[in-house]
Structure to design on (590 residues):
């Protein structure tokens, strides 16, 4: 009963803090970090959505790349507005997810992860090969930034010069994406994903089409990966394929695991901790992998359910202690 | 006596694993509302027959007809959607779901919910969820698990897990239910409970096929099919089959009934 009240208060409180953050923080550098965190929160949360169906994908950054390059190329060469190309990047990510996911339906668990890893590397290699449009390994530069919103009756919102305005855009976008993912997860679709991940034999014995729901999870997850990638492209205005290689995919997975797969806000917490902490210790740049490793060890040993599981863990500990106390008292 | 409709008809079913014939030229049928026992020593191929019927493995040869529809080699989820329910020899369930969630998750087919209505939580979707909850509680009452509905599947005692798997299989509204050792590893009291559940399922008009070593369950069967090394060696009522010389030889190794 206490937990529910806490949840109802905590979430709006945190959102309120995030909305009024620009009143406290002025440095554009901090907002840059926050914007990157928000983009990666979308990516990590959508990776967790895929993981709900029992598929641990090590290609998620590659699907971000698909969204990023499709959106960047459409905007740069065809001159389309990024407001149009970002959703198209999402759809491209989704199509790539379905194309890769469909043949992978036959492999499960660690075998799925292995094959997804190579699919991801293939996508990144493909981007490197198509030099004419993607710029190859040298990178793609001159991607149009987010254009200003000029609606009647409202003041013009400019994104290029203001990191704060970009922050508000990414905050709203992240909230919308998380809301959608939460709705899907708590619907019957989420139940079916959980069912096939717990036992695909039982699930198919009650008529759940395992292949369909696994591809569906990839479609939903990769759509948001594409959105995140497209945002990244128009935010940083340059792209190199190495940004989306093997290591970034692993990093996304670590964000999810450190935050906790079992909790919807796990990837949010994990991404926040693992993007912001290394940024704060930027002056120790060479040692950032050690900080990363240290956090992972602490989480693995002390918080098996991830950082988001900490609250339940502490509650259980208190509950157990008070119970023990009761027994002692009675004796 | 009224003429009964044949629900399931298996003819010439064969499954080879490499050079080994796990099931060889098996023919049997199940009629509407009937309980058929599938008996045989360990390794006789009983579970393989279930896996063949439900599509978990594909037959090498032969036909399986379910309500005039050829189902051999079809995908498991399609066969389930046509109305063949099954349980597994080991109490397979959704371990991280509660008892109630286990049954609710099994209501995938009735009613079916779309992706977008789940996202928008539309009125019709909410109505469907309410129907699912109601049906799930009905089924839990049928198997007597309504008091345990908030226990996690993995924390349930083994005997009750097996009952839960029956409840789960009932959720697809099966015309025929295949139970693989429904009382295996159960205590005496739990067996009584399981027998009453099986009788209640039969009263609903569902045909049943039982694989079981427990002789108390075999008494429930209208007909018993005995297989040995994948071949049918006897068929008839339990009393007839019990003293059949091939059955006695399969179980005890000699041709006369030991006195």
């Amino acid at each position: 009963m206490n937990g529910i009240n806490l949840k109802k208060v905590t979430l709006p409180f945190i959102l309120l803090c995030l909305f009024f953050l620009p009143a406290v923080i002025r440095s554009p550098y901090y907002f840059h970090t926050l914007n990157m965190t928000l983009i990666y929160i979308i990516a990590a949360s959508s990776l967790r959505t895929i993981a709900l169906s029992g598929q641990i994908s090590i290609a998620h950054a590659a699907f971000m790349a698909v969204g990023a390059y499709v959106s960047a190329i459409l905007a740069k060469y065809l001159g389309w507005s990024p407001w149009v190309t970002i959703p198209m990047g999402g759809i491209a990510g989704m199509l790539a997810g379905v194309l890769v996911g469909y043949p992978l339906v036959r492999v499960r668990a660690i075998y799925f992860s292995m094959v997804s890893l190579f699919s991801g590397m293939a996508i990144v290699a493909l981007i490197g090969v198509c030099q004419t449009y993607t710029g190859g390994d040298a990178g793609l530069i001159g991607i149009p930034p987010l254009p200003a919103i000029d609606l009647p009756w409202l003041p013009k919102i400019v994104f290029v010069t203001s990191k704060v305005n970009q922050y508000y855009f990414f905050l709203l976008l992240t909230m919308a994406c998380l809301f959608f993912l939460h709705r899907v997860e708590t619907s019957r679709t989420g139940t079916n994903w959980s069912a096939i991940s717990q036992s695909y034999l039982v699930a198919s014995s009650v008529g759940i089409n395992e292949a369909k729901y696994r591809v569906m999870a990839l479609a939903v997850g990769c759509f948001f990966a594409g959105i995140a990638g497209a945002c990244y492209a128009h935010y940083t205005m340059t792209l190199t394929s190495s940004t989306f290689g093997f290591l970034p995919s692993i990093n996304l997975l670590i964000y999810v695991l450190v935050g906790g797969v079992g909790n919807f806000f796990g990837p949010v917490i994990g991404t926040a901790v693992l993007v912001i902490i290394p940024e704060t210790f930027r002056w120790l740049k060479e040692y950032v992998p050690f900080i990363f490793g240290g956090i992972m060890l602490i989480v693995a040993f002390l918080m098996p359910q991830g950082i988001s599981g900490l609250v339940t863990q502490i509650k259980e500990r208190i509950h157990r202690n008070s119970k023990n106390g009761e027994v002692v008292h009675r004796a | 006596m009224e003429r009964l409709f044949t629900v399931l008809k298996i003819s010439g079913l064969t499954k080879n694993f490499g050079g080994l014939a796990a099931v060889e030229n098996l023919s049997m049928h199940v009629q509407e509302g009937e309980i058929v026992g599938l008996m045989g020593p360990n390794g006789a191929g009983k579970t393989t027959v279930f896996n063949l019927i439900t599509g978990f493995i594909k037959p090498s040869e032969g036909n399986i007809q379910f309500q005039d529809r050829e189902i051999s080699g079809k995908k498991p989820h399609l066969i389930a959607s046509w109305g063949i329910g099954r349980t597994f020899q080991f109490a397979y369930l959704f371990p991280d779901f509660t008892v109630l969630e286990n049954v609710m998750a099994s209501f995938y087919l009735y009613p079916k919910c779309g992706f977008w209505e789940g996202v928008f939580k539309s009125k019709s979707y909410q109505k469907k969820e309410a129907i699912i909850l109601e049906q799930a509680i009905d089924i839990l009452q049928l198997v007597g698990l309504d008091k345990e509905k908030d226990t996690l599947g993995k924390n349930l005692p083994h005997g009750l897990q097996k009952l839960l798997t029956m409840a789960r299989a009932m959720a697809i509204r099966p015309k025929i239910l295949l139970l693989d050792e429904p009382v295996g590893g159960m205590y005496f009291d739990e067996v009584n409970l399981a027998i009453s559940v099986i009788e209640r399922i039969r009263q609903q008009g569902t045909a049943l096929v039982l694989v079981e070593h427990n002789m108390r369950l075999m008494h429930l069967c209208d007909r018993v099919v005995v297989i040995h090394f994948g071949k049918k060696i006897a068929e008839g009522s339990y009393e007839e089959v019990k003293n059949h010389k091939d059955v006695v030889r399969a179980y005890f190794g000699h041709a006369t009934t030991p006195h």
User: Anything to note?
Assistant: Strands of chain A lie at 140-141, 238-239. The mean pLDDT of chain A is 85.
